[in-house]
Write a structure and sequence with these properties.
heterodimer, A: 211 residues, alpha/beta, five-stranded parallel β-sheet, four-stranded antiparallel β-sheet, 7 helices, 9 strands, B: 555 residues, mainly alpha, two-stranded antiparallel ribbon, 73% helix
């Protein structure tokens, strides 16, 4: 039940050289692996490759499996790979609650049950009663917590973290980081973190790969 | 001070005529029109209008074609824009020229294409259909107005796509698409539930402009719409043009009704927006995430529309060069330049050019004065409503009243009044086209010029205008194409005596000789295209050694 990368290479559109040497990596459920490296080395492209968001024109080799399923032939929406970005990307036209409802899978039926699931997620994020709020009124830390809850409501089988703490100030950073990692462990899914910050890597307590 | 002067000019030049036109139309609608000896106020014109045969059918037809064309155009434009967004709008360049083609020219071409004796039937006859004479069904002027809806959609879909693509640059499409898909939504679902709701508020005003236009269009309805009973706008036109001047009274009552229909149409549309938003939100909470767009059908409709539009322009060209083209030959049997060498079209072309040049020059001056006054005042002029009004108020609803107002002022119908009327409709487009690049001009340039001792006039003449030459000429080309396309203002303000390519093409469109109509319609389409080519070529030549002016600095 792991996320397994084998011999992954990426060549950007118009490029001739792979961005990094062939990458092999296994992330166990509940663990957070960290990928580090200079900017422009292709850390975000790697996450886009795993999540299915790579723009056309990239030439790729290697394989990605999750729980033994080959991810690469699947479109992004069927991979069940959640993503957290540097920007929380909360949809500005939806309330906080509706942002969460957007992520909540269609298998949970019934108005009351769905609303309860949203409320419960908000409570876990320490944001009880925030359902009707405009996402634009949230602080940076609150936005990240809502984005994590939204991602988890979609019941992902793996989580990709693309520098989600980079814009938070130092004090908040440790707190939000702990919050995210704790949820990864509780959900028992593999997570892959991309970061510049050695402190992030240490806190993740998992294997560190430098591209 | 300068701001107040420009404000006054715009208020008098645009707001004044609209208010006067509305006022006199309203008075005539209630029976007060001393010029024809009618001075008793009452509701008799309304009764006369309602009692006219086919009037109720015409009303229904107006609502059906106007709302139908807008729903179809907006739906298709939004669906097609999803594909366009992916390749950064490069394919948009292919359909941009269609925007410059006047409605009347496209409508005539479409009629030549889809009529029972049109090109499509000729291409498949007699080998596939067995027809040796045109079949006896109505494809143009059909009683349900389907041809009119199709014609309107061919013009409005590219317009709305262009507007949508411009608005897309203000929405983080790629990021939200990735975020939405990572949550398990298909691209179509993310487009409908995340991107479109953010996009729509940015394109709402252009959508209302399309709706108002479709509910009150005259030239396209004359060419493609049913004639008996016609849509309300054509009924009004016939009333104003009737030999019996007393018919102007019920026509004015109907014109007031037309204003009401557009107002109600926009109100209804706004209500539908809110209801749809509600439904969408409820569906989202319930967890619906299926694709809503039949992708294949959308692509097919897009290809079909592009084919029809291209075919319309091509068939105009063919007819203008044909000598003998009997049914059901696929192509003319003999060709001739005779209709081009005959000088019938020369006078109308000159008139079109002259009016267009005068209108564009006046509007360019006014738009530059407006934007410069804003710069000097350091704030926006509070006249945005005045700019939107001419795009939302139906022309047929106030222009005959404006004619009466001009007569009261001692301004007889003629070239001057036509130019003034064109100005009302050209100015908004030119101001909108120029304001974006003007306000985006690198402020450092102006500050540097000021630091070098250049006063406001030198900054305007020696820095702003030369740097902004390309957008100014683009705005001028847009203004020129709007002027060329004007039908009702030219007809009413010229009292039928000012003959431009558009008035001639529409007048001839009901006649039999497609070759002559072809010449006028081709010219009508070519003039705006030529203006756009000039707008690209002139700065290209003047600035050939100034690479920075080719792009980013002025946009």
């Amino acid at each position: 039940m792991s996320l397994i990368l084998s011999h992954v290479t990426l060549v950007p559109p118009g490029g001739t050289q792979p961005l990094f040497a062939p990458l092999d990596l296994t992330v166990a459920p509940g663990a957070v692996s960290t990928v580090m490296g200079a900017s422009g080395i292709g850390k975000s492209s790697l996450l886009d490759f795993i999540g299915g968001h790579l723009p056309r024109g990239f030439v790729t080799t290697g394989g990605v499996t999750l729980d033994g399923i080959d991810l690469l032939p699947l479109p992004a929406e069927q991979r069940r790979v959640g993503m957290l970005f540097q920007d929380a990307h909360l949809f500005p036209h939806l309330s906080v609650g509706d942002n969460l409802a957007f992520g909540l899978g269609p298998d949970l039926r019934g108005k009351a049950a769905r609303r309860a699931a949203v409320e419960q997620a908000l409570e876990r994020a320490g944001l009880a009663g925030f359902a009707a709020r405009d996402p634009a009124t949230l602080s940076g830390g609150q936005r990240t917590r809502v984005a994590l809850m939204r991602a988890l409501l979609a019941r992902p089988r793996a989580l990709l973290l693309d520098e989600p703490f980079a814009r938070l100030d130092a004090a908040l950073r440790a707190e939000i980081r702990g919050f995210v990692f704790e949820h990864v462990r509780r959900e028992n899914i593999p997570a892959l973190l991309v970061t510049h910050d050695a402190e992030d890597a240490r806190a993740a307590q998992g294997p560190v790969v430098t591209l | 001070m300068a701001g107040r002067l420009v404000g006054l000019a715009v208020a008098l030049g645009i707001g004044g005529p609209i208010l006067a036109g509305l006022g006199f139309t309203l008075l005539a609608g209630f029976g007060w029109m001393p010029a024809i000896g009618q001075a008793g106020l009452g509701t008799a014109p309304w009764a006369a209008a309602f009692a006219a045969p086919g009037f109720a059918t015409g009303l229904r037809l107006t609502l059906w074609t106007g709302l139908g064309a807008t729903v179809l155009s907006l739906g298709l434009a939004l669906a097609l824009a999803q594909g366009m967004a992916r390749d950064g709008g490069r394919r948009m360049r292919l359909i941009a020229p269609l925007l410059a083609v006047p409605h009347a020219a496209l409508a005539i071409g479409l009629a030549f294409l889809i009529a029972p004796s049109g090109w499509i039937v000729r291409l498949v006859s007699p080998w596939a259909t067995g027809w040796t004479t045109p079949p006896a069904f109505a494809t143009t002027g059909d009683p349900a107005g389907l041809a009119l809806i199709l014609g309107l959609a061919l013009k409005e879909v590219p317009f709305l796509m262009l507007i949508t693509l411009a608005a897309l640059s203000r929405v983080p499409v790629a990021a939200h698409m990735a975020a939405g898909r990572a949550l398990g939504h298909s691209p179509a679902s993310v487009w409908v539930r995340v991107i479109v709701p953010q996009l729509y508020p940015l394109i709402r005003l252009p959508v209302y402009v399309v709706l108002a236009f479709s509910l009150s269009v005259v030239d396209m309805a004359l060419i493609l719409g049913p004639s008996n009973p016609p849509t309300l706008s054509v009924w009004i036109l016939r009333g104003y043009m009737a030999p019996d001047p007393a018919m102007a009274l019920p026509a004015s009552a109907a014109a007031v009704m037309q204003l009401g229909i557009v107002a109600c149409g926009i109100g209804l549309w706004h209500l539908a927006e809110r209801i749809l938003a509600r439904i969408g939100r409820a569906e989202l909470r319930r967890g619906r995430r299926g694709g809503v767009l039949p992708q294949g059908a959308v692509r097919l409709a897009g290809a079909l529309g592009a084919g029809l539009a291209g075919g319309s322009l091509l068939v105009l060209m063919l007819w203008s060069l044909a000598w003998r083209w009997p049914f059901p030959a696929a192509l003319p049997e003999t060709w001739s330049l005779r209709h081009w060498t005959g000088r019938g079209w020369g006078a109308a072309t000159l008139e079109t050019l002259w009016i267009g040049a005068a209108v564009v020059a006046l509007c360019a001056l006014l738009a530059i004065a407006w934007l410069e006054a804003e710069d000097r005042a350091g704030r926006r002029l509070p006249l945005t409503a005045l700019v939107a009004a001419p795009l939302l108020i139906p022309q047929i609803g106030f222009l005959q009243g404006l004619n009466i107002a001009f007569l009261h002022l001692g301004l007889p119908p003629g070239r001057g009044t036509v130019i003034w009327a064109h100005l009302i409709f050209v100015f908004p487009y030119m101001l909108l086209a120029l304001s974006g690049p003007w306000r985006a001009l690198e402020p450092g340039l102006i500050r540097s010029a000021a630091a070098l001792g250049a006063g406001p006039w030198r900054r305007l003449l020696a820095v702003k205008l030369p740097v902004l030459l390309r957008p100014i000429l683009t705005a001028a080309a847009i203004g020129f194409s709007v002027s060329v396309a004007q039908y009702v203002p030219t007809l009413f303000m010229g009292a039928g005596r000012i003959a431009t390519l558009t008035t001639e093409a529409v007048a001839l469109s009901s006649s039999a000789d497609r070759r002559v109509v072809g010449v006028y319609a081709v010219l009508q389409a070519i003039l705006p295209l030529a203006a756009f080519m000039l707008a690209i070529a002139v700065p290209g030549a003047l600035h050939r050694n100034r690479r920075a002016l080719a792009g980013e600095l002025t946009r």
